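Possible regression after last week's pipeline update?

I re-ran a chain I had predicted before the update to compare outputs. Posting the input and the new output here so someone can diff against the archived version. Not blocking, just want to make sure nothing changed silently.
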Amino acid sequence: MLGGENPLKAWRKHRGLSPRDLADKTGLSASTICEIESGRKEGSISAMKAITKALGLELDEVV
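New output (post-update):
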């Protein structure tokens, strides 16, 4: 994250998950995960809650 990496991507990698793994845990598509991580898409509150829950984080830790 210090290098400007998206916090969600950094935490996903830290947890050893691929975008597909995280998608399976959240019910979102892997492409949606990648779009949110890259900033091409703004994640909805429900998507962000699902992602942070799957990563074992609180929403305020990544937004």
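Follow-up from reviewer: compared with the archived run. The first helix runs from residue 7 to 14. Marking as no regression found.
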